[in-house]
Every structure is written in C-alpha cells, then in structure tokens.
C-alpha cells in the first residue's frame, strides 16, 4: 500500500510540475531584405502560423509589436542587428525573437531564419537555404526551415523577471505589459487598483482583468483545500495501521482499518484533484489577464450585447453583457 501511495504522489508531482510550465513568448518581426511589403507580410504570417501551432510557444500579437516599434522609432524591416532585436523583444515582454532575412539572388532568394534569446542576445537556432524557383517555392522553403528549427528548439523554464520592462523605457509609458498576473507600465509594476483605474473606460479589458483576478482567488482556494486534503490522506501512513490480528499461536498481522482506507482514498484522491484543478485555473487566470492587457493596448471595447450563462448575486442564471 505504501509503495502504491508513494508512486501516486511522485506521478502527481511530475504532472503538476509539467502543467506549471508556461508557454514561451515569441516576437515575430517582419523579414528584412529588398522585397516588397506584401511578400514580407505573407512570409511573416506563415512563420507565425507554424509557431502558434507548436506546443510550448505563443506568438505576440502583431498590433502590439507595431505599436512598440512605432513608439521607439524602429522599422520592423530594419531590425537586422541582434542587439536591437533583443532590446525590442525585452520591451515587448518576449522570451524569444524570431527574425528572417530574404536576400534576392537573381530570380531566387537566400533565406535565413534565426531565433534570438532576448535576455542574452544570443542566437539560439538558425537555418539557411536557397530557393530554386524564385517566389514560387519561397514559402515552401520558409515553412521547412521554421519547422526544422522548432522541431528541436530549446524550451527553457520561463524566468519570472524576463518579461518585465526596464525603468529606462519611458517612451512606451502608455502601453501595458503583462507578466503572468503582474501588469507593468513604463517599467513600474501596477497595483490591481491602478490597473482597474486605467481600464475603467474599456469594458472588455476591465471585465477580462476582473475575471482573471477572480479566477486566481478560486484557484488559490482549490489548492489550499487540496493540500489540506492530501495531508489528511497521508496521516494513516504516518500513524500506522489501527488493527492488529494474531492468529492462535501465529504471527501478528497489522491492517489498516476501513476508516483509514477511506481517509487515504478520499483524502489523496480529492486532494490531488483539487490541487491539479487549482493549477489549471491559476494558469488560465494568467492568460485571461494577458488578454485584458491586449484589449487595453488595442483600445477595443465591447459594444454588442452578449447573452451567456453565469453566476449572479442570486445564484446561477442568465448574464447579459453590454
């Protein structure tokens, strides 16, 4: 019995650790090179599409990248210096930056794609190739290179401080950047009340932010109750079995009582389930806060009427959102 419980606990810890990992944020910049804007946009979107569908990575929204580039007076197609790329990646709160170079050679292109760690400005991965039939197979070559790159890309555990902007970057004071549930503006972390005050006139942003923070509270409650339940489930293993049985003239046997078995089964099972549920909700709350920041940065607000089911002050019912 002890071996079974210990094995279960180890498996639980491994699954919790794996679930706690966050996606790496990737800033995909416009390709550089002497090519027209339409071709650059098509190549960029093809790259973003592959990364978005690669497990463990998420792509920052294009509107946010354009806005930060504009406020810092950079041209997306002119980011050819790795240190510049790393600097812009840090401003965007990214972990990695993806840059592409398209160099025309006659009717063909020499293609170079590379992924840069924004904290060290080090090139983590790079692939190069040359098209054989000009623009006809350019996208095919780009897709192949990107897939090869992300097939063996390193996936380091995210560093909490990596997405925080520096205090010197005051030029983007109006932009909010989310690092988990922490929100920064102009290099300073904002309190929840400050965030709510800024988002007060953006209905979509404030509703998402409040939803994310509420989900955090629920997640913490689940994890606390689950941790207590898990400890209660382990108590019989620490205390030892209640029953002992000694056949006439035989060896003494020790057995867990029916109540102890129930305590272990329900304590460990329910406790582990609540902890895992709390972790899932906790990760979801971070994503919702990130969505609220994106909604604020884009200046969007909900203007249409939405009908949904939800929890009201009087219980479960229909919720109208304007």
Summarize the model shown.
By secondary structure, this protein is an alpha+beta fold. The chain has helices spanning 2-19, 37-52, 62-71, 82-91, 138-151, 192-198, 203-239, 258-298; strands spanning 24-28, 57-59, 96-105, 108-117, 122-130, 176-179, 182-185, 188-190, 243-245, 253-255, 306-312, 315-321. Helix 1 packs parallel to helix 8 and helix 7 packs antiparallel against helix 8.
Q: Quick check: average pLDDT?
A: 75
Question: Count of helices?
Answer: 8
Structural domain count: 2
Helix content range of the residues, please?
40-55%
CATH top level class name of the largest domain: Alpha Beta
Order of helices and strands: HEHEHHEEEHEEEHHEEHEE
- Radius of gyration, CA atoms, in whole angstroms: 26 Å
How many strands? Answer: 12
- Work out the oligomeric state of the chains in this entry: single chain
CATH-level-2 architecture of the largest domain: 3-Layer(aba) Sandwich
Structural class: alpha+beta
Broad shape: elongated
Strand content: 15-25%
| CATH topology label of the largest domain | Rossmann fold
Query: Biggest sheet: strands, sense, closure?
Result: 5 strands, mixed
């Amino acid at each position: 019995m002890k071996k079974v419980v210990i094995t279960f606990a180890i498996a639980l810890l491994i699954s919790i650790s794996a679930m706690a990992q966050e996606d790496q944020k990737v800033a995909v910049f416009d390709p550089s090179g002497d090519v027209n804007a339409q071709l650059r946009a098509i190549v960029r979107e093809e790259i973003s599409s592959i990364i978005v569908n690669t497990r463990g990575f998420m792509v920052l929204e294009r509107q946010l990248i354009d806005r930060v580039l504009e406020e810092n007076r950079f041209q997306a197609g002119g980011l050819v210096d790795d240190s510049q790329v790393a600097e812009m990646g840090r401003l965007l709160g990214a972990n990695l930056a993806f840059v592409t170079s398209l160099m025309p050679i006659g009717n063909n292109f020499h293609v170079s794609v590379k992924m840069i760690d924004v904290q060290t400005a080090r090139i983590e991965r790079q692939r190069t190739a040359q098209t054989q039939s000009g623009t006809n197979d350019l996208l095919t070559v780009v897709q192949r290179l990107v897939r090869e790159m992300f097939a063996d890309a390193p996936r380091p555990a995210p560093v909490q401080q990596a997405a925080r902007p520096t205090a010197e970057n005051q030029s983007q004071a109006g932009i909010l950047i989310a690092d988990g549930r922490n929100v920064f503006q102009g290099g300073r972390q904002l309190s929840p009340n400050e965030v709510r005050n800024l988002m007060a006139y953006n209905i979509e942003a404030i509703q998402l932010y409040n939803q994310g923070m509420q989900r955090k509270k629920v997640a913490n409650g689940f994890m606390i109750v689950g941790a207590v339940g898990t400890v209660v489930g382990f108590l019989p293993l620490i205390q030892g079995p209640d029953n002992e049985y000694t056949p006439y003239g035989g060896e003494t046997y020790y057995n867990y009582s029916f109540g102890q078995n129930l305590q272990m089964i329900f304590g460990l099972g329910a406790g582990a389930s609540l902890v895992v549920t709390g972790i899932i909700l906790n990760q979801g709350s971070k994503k919702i806060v990130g969505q609220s920041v994106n909604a604020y940065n884009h200046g969007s607000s909900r203007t249409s009427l939405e009908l949904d089911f939800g929890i009201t002050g009087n219980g479960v019912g229909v919720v109208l959102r304007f």
